[in-house]
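Go through this one:
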Amino acid sequence: MKITKIYTDDLGDSFFQDIEIPLVEQGAIGFLSENIAVTNLQIRKVRADYDYDFHCAPQRQYIVLLDGGVEIETSRGERRKFQAGEILLVEDTFGKGHRTKNLQKRERTSLFIHI
């Protein structure tokens, strides 16, 4: 399963990296990854006009987009769009951070899974 990681280099710039989470067939229950240790889960809803300027992630976390989409911009100016159902691994907890804004003018819900 492909997910996108946002990380910081030694100079404090943020970047995207596509990573693959291996899934193993488990018969009738489908395909599963290895267990991933997590510490907390938060549910977040943002307003329709969400447009958050450059910021660092408050901790390493997975973000699961439940509805709506976002555009994320790295400190180097690269932009990517993500839609409902996609998973991000956000690790830029220091440096110049990233910018996030809603793709549509509507409330958006996501899960934050702290690691």
The chain has one domain: 2-114. The mean pLDDT is 98.
